[in-house]
Amino acid sequence: MFLSKVWIGWLSAKDPYQLHRALWQLFPDRPTDERDFLFRVEEQQRGKGAMALLLSAEQPQSASVAEVIASKPMPQNIAAGARLRFRLRANPVKAIKDSKRLDKNGEAKSIRVPLIHEEEQLKWLLRKFAGVAELETARVWQEPALFFRKQDMGGKIQPVCFEGVLTVLDNQALFELLRQGIGPAKAMGCGLLSLAAA
To answer: Within a domain: residue 27?
Structure first.
């Protein structure tokens, strides 16, 4: 896996869906592949562009809409018992049945709704780390809603940023979390877990 810093021009950076499409261009000749990268916008300058952190299976290559500023292989030697600082932008949600929306069998469809209370958000985070890492501390930062357009439809997600300190319980499971990401809305810049020495 590679960890990279990427600059995305404003035309693509101003909409989360377009930003995701711009990042795809860093991996040429893969139009039918499934996404195997995660990203998180670290800084956005209105009218100029955005700086994003990118975790990918392949090393990215600069493209016309996005420039790779730095890229390095991600260390693979985190040991069980290691104490690390973490940061995660996520979209904590729960599934509920919506009786107004029915599937083809006439049953209520399951829909995702955001968890809006900090206590619920922290419980969600604990469930995601269960058996993988023990949380020593965790803070929640509420972030602005992300509005996006995909084809002719609009959408909105409500991300939050978690920061804190954890102790690794299962390093293989931790690498799987790093690789897969945590929670939904990964195409909108959620799910990337970053780690540093505590």
So the answer is: yes
Backbone angles phi, psi at 190, to 5 degrees: -105, 160
- Tell me: do 50 and 97 sit in the same domain: no
Listed in order, strand segments (DSSP E) in the chain are: 2-9, 37-45, 49-56, 66-73, 83-90, 93-102, 108-114, 133-142, 146-150, 153-157, 160-168, 193-197
Phi, psi (rounded to 5 degrees) for 148: -145, 160
pLDDT digits (tens, 9 = 90+) for 154-170: 778 899 999 999 999 99
Within 10 Å of residue 121's Cβ, how many Cβ atoms?
19
User: What residue type is assigned to position 34 of the chain?
Assistant: E
**Structural domain range at position 97:** 83-197
pLDDT for res 195: 95
Contacts of 28 (CB under 8 A, 6+ apart): 61, 63
Distance CA(52)–CA(38), nearest Å, equals: 10
Taking 70 as the threshold, does the pLDDT of residue 172 lie above it? yes
User: What's the CATH code of the domain at 143?
Assistant: 3.30.70.1210
What confidence category does residue 32 fall into, taking pLDDT thresholds of 50, 70 and 90? low
